[in-house]
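hey so u asked for the seq, here:
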Amino acid sequence: MKKSRIALVLSMLFAASHAHAQSSVTLYGSLDAGVGYVSNLRGAHAFIAQQGTFQADRWGLTGVEDLGGGLKSVFKLESGFSTINGAMASVGTLFNRQAYVGLSDERIGTITLGRQTDFHFEMLGPLSTAQTLGDFSAFHPGNIDGLGNTVPVELSNTIKFRSRTIAGVTLGAMYGFTNQSSSTTGRTFSLGATYGVGPFNFAAAYSEYRNRALNLANAFGLTSFQGVPLSAAAPLVADSVRNAGIGASAQIGPVQLHALVTQVRIEQGGRASTARSIDGGANFQVTPAYMIGAGAWTTTLAGKRWTQATIANVYSLSKLTQLYADVMVEQASSGAVASTLGIGPSSTNRQMVILAGVHHLF
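ran it, structure tokens below
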């Protein structure tokens, strides 16, 4: 009798430890801070403290529970902040980057509900100069095509599906509810696809957003758009924004080549304008610890053009800690002013930015 009781206790302890091993919660994050020089920031050169250049500052919790039969429950809570001043990325929104819960089936894919990013960031963004070089300020003006994870790329009230990868193909779809009766105000949806074969990767995404706010004054240095006066304090709320893009990359030994094209159609008051961006570059892994890369893009909108070239150097002290130093040169034409993302507009059509710092993951 005593032996049977001991055996029962041991079996219960084993079952409890086994169940615990099938569930996990992980705390993670990224801190990035540095200094920089700007040749022309609103009319004068400036030395600045800068955060989130190599990767966005953030912390989060992610978890998974094995439900058996290949089915798992998943969740993520992620909050963006600034390392240099401790402020939240979005005032009043704690988990401003992502907050979702869902189910994952190894035979079908994953479905999640909550605050999430669309497929321009998730599938197309990794092929951009900014993400491949690790430089937030190398994204296109105002991040208007959503390749970087900044407001308003994060979308609330969404349901999202991402398929498992079959023969190199992954598909995704997302819908954002308005939470209003009989209204399309704030409605969003996004579609994405990736295909990988050998050293090649391809991606495409299409998204639509109703009543999306666009800060075109800071992003492009514009004072008006389609006859509407603009200011940094009053973003343009577009009736409809339609975002499409395709891209590809190839890994050839230590060299990675990448290119993409995006097109963003902005409709407001019955009028429409299109922002088009062409982006490409190459990274060279000189040693396992040292990478140097170069990339460039050109963007047109409302008869004006912005072009930027970037050279990036990244030295890894470990898998979790990197030092970086980047140089960006931007030039605008047709009366536009240069305005590097995350830095601010120049008073002329040229701007040079040098950024250096340290990044750490945990």
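The longest strand covers residues 23-41. The longest helix spans residues 2-21.
lmk if thats what u needed
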